[in-house]
Design goal:
The complex is a heterotrimer of chains A (270), B (272) and C (358). In chain A, 35% of the residues lie in helices and 24% in strands. Chain A has 270 residues and is α/β, with parallel strands linked by helices. In chain A, the strands form 2 sheets. In chain A, strands 6-7-8-3-9-10 form a 6-stranded mixed beta sheet, sandwiched between helices. In chain A, strands 2-1-4-5 form a 4-stranded antiparallel beta sheet, covered by helices on one side. In chain A, helix 4 crosses helix 5 and helix 4 runs parallel beside helix 6. The relative contact order of chain A is 0.18. Helix content of chain B is 75%, strand content 3%. Chain B is built from 11 helices and 2 strands. In chain B, a hairpin with a 4-residue loop joins strand 1 and strand 2. In chain B, helix 9 crosses helix 10. Chain C has one domain: Orthogonal Bundle (Arp2/3 complex 21 kDa subunit ARPC3), CATH 1.10.1760.20. The longest helix of chain C is centred in the last third of the chain and has 36 residues. Classes of the chains: A alpha/beta (270), B mainly alpha (272), C mainly alpha (358). At the B-C interface, helix 1, helix 3, helix 5, helix 6 and helix 7 of B face helix 1, helix 2, strand 1, helix 3 and helix 7 of C.
Chain lengths: 270, 272, 358
């Protein structure tokens, strides 16, 4: 089967600092892939490229055989179709919750895609029910807990029933119970025909959420294999800074800036 | 002066603002007169009463409007204690500080003379001060009732149906939402800085801390706005914001609207 | 600085709402050509930032505290149109959600703080920082001065709005219906607090933020730097489209600048209250209010005589209504500010276009 995403030699820089340096990767439709990497390995950047929020400076990304480009997204028809099929859940839910209430938040996507009103209302209600958020319908985001915010962020994209789900660190900074709730949801989708691409640095969840693991190291693909193979390859994990990775908390701040980790020290502002 | 007094008072100001927002939301969810009306009726109705307050030129008419405000408050399940604490006292202190000198400074018929004729209290001065204080108290009470009894999301929906540009509504909505996030961030930054300081901070140092915190906040704000834009695009935002409006005026709403407009109109007529 | 409901007459409120509406319309229109969709989140977050910064207490010399408005940094990063919208939105939320500043006076507050504040801040910053590198120390100083001037211009406009109330709106026996103090008291009372303290708060915060951006995010200073504009803030293509708007502005400014003729004519209005009221002013109990309260001090007396000096009481008296004179002088003030900002804008456009061709 032709891959749904086909990346060839993708490079990307933020203000001249490279984030991805020649990454090639194929992802089949219906596959569940974990992008494993330390902070700054380029996971978040890769997800944004896959969601066509930015475009490679070199190399190409094909989606369902079509080359993604800025020009293509000038066309409403293609852009809306793509947005309908591919959805990204950001690491920091605060970024994604910009509407006054939970209901408005979940309704935002369907409204932009110009669904009829009745369908919007019924779909939003069903999604809130599914994510056990119905009782929070009229809450403003600042009155939600961290776990609830994450669930609303998820609800706001799955209401569109996308074929491809891109998840950026869906379980980091969550308490254990919210974490397992989210993992359960991902496992449910895994069984369906959805393509699920999850960026994470948490080794312990990889087996639950993915059937294949792609390890990213300094903006390149270091390995791609089954979870069992990858998790037993200690040398690889050490090199990719995934075991004994230094610990530091970023609080609620999205951390997606693309610096490279010097392995002995790190220097960025928290 | 304890360390970081000013920084502390800023943080407490944040907490107070948040607490206020939470109170409003609880009151907005109660059952009551204002809560039972369509948000658009509340907005138009209370705005017309505020206008009536500013239009009427007689003290007693403003007084009657104040009683109307009290009645609306009681019927809407708003405790008068909250109004007294949040509105009446603050407004009285602030406005009377401004209005007090006018008792002497306004030219007119003297009613009392001090310091051998150098200083007069004038009739006009007393009236203008009284009118100013009564007006501000009453108008702010109406505004506060609107705020207390209407969740922000409903205010936005009401504004939407007044044909304001979509972008303006979207910005109002997003700004409100991110005020809380940035307040939280600022509190964290202030508190972490405070925990690292020992002893009394000189004013210059407090100024520096405050400016530096503003700087951190600015950087975070900008990053945030970039990411929010991407998040909007990701869900199909193409430059035009589409929303759902789901208001239906009931006959009760028309009754309310009519009552507000009649009260306002009567006040303007009587207070000419 | 936030004018609550009840201080201004309804007709003043309506006029200033209309003024603010022109500002909002012009800003939206200007931004629409730039790419409003991108600006929506940026302006929103900036408005939230301005709102939060307004809550920062800043210790000032003399044991007082003040707070900044955030309008200067908004003008420096977003440009005048974006700043007008961002600050207006922050003010609207303060009025509609937190109850600070009135609903009927929202237009007035937006005119004063968002529109006048942004234009003065932007003009001053561009003028002083012109031609310097992004990392130049002069930009920090420019931000400080811009902040100081913007806040004082804002206070001046508010004082004028207060000051024209008693002459325009009073009962038959002379009782003022709204803000009770004439220009001669309102202006010095407002300005003393702002010239000394409140203006400093905005200056400190604006300078601190520009210094921060120079290190942390210099790209944000580029849009209004006048150096090799990357086509975002003010691209050449916007010029023809905003031409009709500019003509409208020019007409308004021209009309307003004609008002000195009227002031000369109504000169009695200025002299009328000044001597008698100030004789009393000194012996009045002195309220020591917050910096924006209408404190009456001895220094004010001196300042106010200075202010009234250019308007002698021997001016022809054929315009009897003092109200007329107040209105005209206020219009002149606004017209002057607008003219200054238009001239500045024109100057920078010229500079930039010659800079490109060389």
């Amino acid at each position: 089967m032709a891959p749904i995403f086909d990346l060839r030699d993708v490079c990307f820089e933020y203000e001249r600092i490279p984030a991805l340096r020649g990454l090639s990767l194929q992802i089949a439709a219906g596959e569940s892939v974990a992008l494993l990497g330390a902070n700054g390995s380029g996971k978040s950047t890769l997800l944004r490229l896959l969601d066509a929020l930015c475009f490679p400076s070199q190399g190409t990304i094909d989606f369902g055989g079509q080359r993604l480009s800025q020009e293509l997204f000038q066309k409403d028809g293609f852009a809306l179709g793509f947005r309908r099929r591919v959805a990204l859940v950001f690491q920091n839910p605060d970024v994604q919750l910009f509407n006054p209430t939970v209901f408005d938040e979940v309704a935002f996507g369907p409204l932009q895609l110009q669904w009829p009103k009745e369908k919007v209302v019924s779909q939003v209600a069903a999604t809130l029910e599914l994510m056990s958020l119905a009782h929070l319908r009229d809450r403003p985001p600042y009155r939600l807990s961290g776990g609830e915010k994450k669930r609303v962020a998820l609800a706001s994209v799955i209401v569109l029933d996308p074929e491809v789900l891109l998840l950026d660190e869906p379980t980091s900074t969550l308490d254990p119970r919210s974490q397992s709730q989210i993992i359960d949801l991902i496992q449910e989708w895994k069984g369906s025909s959805k393509t699920i691409i999850t960026a994470t640095h948490q080794l312990e969840i990889v087996e639950d959420i993915a059937s294949r693991v792609a390890v990213l190291e300094e903006g390149k693909l270091a390995a791609s294999d089954s979870p069992a193979e990858i998790l037993s390859n200690h040398e690889l994990l050490l090199r990719a800074n995934l075991v004994h990775a230094h610990r530091h908390s970023h609080g609620t701040v999205t951390h997606s800036h693309p610096h490279l980790h010097a392995h002995s020290k790190h220097e960025h502002e928290h | 002066m304890s360390r970081g007094t000013v920084v502390r008072s800023t943080v407490m100001g944040f907490a107070r603002a948040l607490a206020r927002a939470l109170i409003s939301e609880d009151i907005a969810r109660r059952r009551g007169l204002l809560q039972s009306l369509d948000p658009r009726v509340r907005l138009v109705g209370l705005f017309s009463l505020v206008l009536a307050v500013t239009l009427s030129r007689r003290l007693w008419v403003v007084g009657v409007l104040f009683v109307v405000a009290l009645a609306v408050a009681v019927l809407s399940n708003v405790s008068l204690a909250i109004l007294a604490k949040r509105v009446w006292l603050v407004v009285f202190v602030f406005t009377s500080a401004i209005a007090f000198p006018a008792i002497f400074l306004t030219p007119g018929t003297p009613v009392a003379t001090f310091a051998g004729g150098a200083v007069h209290i004038t009739e006009q001065g007393l009236t203008t001060s009284g009118l100013l204080i009564a007006r501000v108290e009453t108008a702010v009470t109406f505004t506060t009732l609107l705020i207390l009894c209407t969740a922000w999301a409903q205010v936005l929906k009401a504004l939407r149906s007044f044909r304001l540009p979509q972008e303006a509504i979207a910005m109002l909505a997003m700004t409100h939402r991110y005020i809380f996030l940035l307040t939280e961030t600022a509190t964290q930054v202030f508190e972490s800085r405070e925990s690292r300081t020992v002893g009394v901070l000189p004013a210059a140092e407090q100024r520096r801390i405050t400016a530096a915190t503003a700087g951190v906040l600015l950087s975070k704000s900008i990053d945030l706005s970039n990411d929010v834009y991407l998040a909007m695009q990701s869900r199909g935002f193409r430059g035009e914001i589409r929303t759902l409006s789901e208001f239906h005026m009931q006959s009760w709403d028309y009754v309310g609207l009519l009552a507000f407009l009649l009260a306002g109109g009567a006040a303007v007529w009587m207070g000419r | 600085m936030h004018i609550p409901d009840g201080y201004l007459s309804p007709s003043t409120c309506v006029t200033l709402y209309a003024g603010a509406a022109v500002g909002w319309y012009a800003s939206l229109k200007r931004l629409k050509r730039v790419l409003l969709s991108r600006m929506v989140p940026l302006i929103s977050v900036f408005a939230a930032f301005a709102f939060v910064v307004m809550m920062f207490n800043l210790p000032l010399p003399g044991g007082t505290t003040g707070h900044a408005l955030g309008v200067t940094i908004a003008a420096i990063v977003l440009g005048p149109s974006g700043a007008v919208l961002a600050v207006s939105i922050a003010l609207a939320i303060q009025a509609l959600f937190f109850g600070d500043g009135g609903i009927s006076t929202l237009g007035a507050n937006c005119c004063n703080m968002a529109i006048v504040g942004s234009l003065v801040a932007y003009g001053t910053y561009r003028l002083i920082a012109a031609g310097t590198a992004i990392s130049s120390k002069r930009r920090v100083a420019a931000a400080a001065i811009a902040g100081y001037l913007a806040l004082n211009a804002t206070a001046l406009i508010a004082a004028i709005e207060f000051g024209i109330q008693p002459a325009l709106f009073h009962t038959a026996n002379g009782t003022p219906l709204y803000a009770p103090y004439p220009l001669g008291i309102a202006i010095p009372a407002m300005m003393i607090g702002h010239l000394t303290f409140a203006g400093l708060a905005e200056a400190v915060i604006s300078a601190g933020l520009v210094a921060h951006l120079q290190v942390a995010d210099p790209g944000l200073l580029r849009a209004t730097s006048g150096i090799a504009a990357r086509g975002d803030a003010a691209s050449p293509s916007e010029q023809p489209a905003t031409k009709s708007l500019r003509r409208l502005w020019l007409t308004v400014v021209f009309l307003m600048l004609l008002t000195p003729l009227g002031i000369l004519a109504a000169g009695t209005a200025w002299g009328e209250w000044a001597p008698s009221e100030f004789a009393r002013g000194g012996s009045v109990p002195q309220p020591t209010g917050p910096s924006h309260g209408l404190a009456v001090t001895a220094g004010m007396q001196r300042l106010s005589t200075l202010w009234t000096a250019p308007f002698p009481s021997y001016a022809p008296g054929f315009v009897k209504s003092p109200a007329f004179g107040y209105l005209l002088s206020a219009m002149f003030g606004v017209g002057f500010l607008l003219a200054a900002s238009l001239l500045l804008q024109h100057y920078f456009k010229r500079r930039r276009s010659t800079g490109h061709s060389s």
